[in-house]
Fold this protein.
Amino acid sequence: MVRAQAALGARLGRAPTRVELAVATGLSANAVQQALNLIAQEADFVDPELDRLADTDTPSPAESVETEDLRLSLREALSRLSSVQAAVLYRYYFEDATLEMISAEIGVSKERVRQIREAGEKKLRADFVVLALWQSLISSK
């Protein structure tokens, strides 16, 4: 019935009437109405068990806030690096670029890219240690 309804609707450019569906399917108008009622009931049916299932694909509000806080902290930390260090770290960790790809993009050797990455990581680690100490001081008040 659903296929007939869709095909007839496409051909007519509008929703078909019950009589038009009856003619198209060879059913009585009463049988078409019963089928349409069943289809509507099925569409309106909501399984109460579905409301109890956890949505594992969607992060919890706490996870969303934590992720956003981390993103903002990383963005702030990256802004304190040189532009080259920030670009290398961003490409390497967030865009999964290889050292070879980055070296070709910025025109230095793969070894130099590795050194830039390590220097940026060292500065980020130091910044996060200072940030953690600062936050512990603030939270202890």
About this structure: The chain has seven helices and no strands. Helices lie at 2-12, 18-25, 29-44, 61-79, 83-94, 99-106, 110-139. The domain at 61-139 is CATH 1.10.10.10 (Arc Repressor Mutant, subunit A).
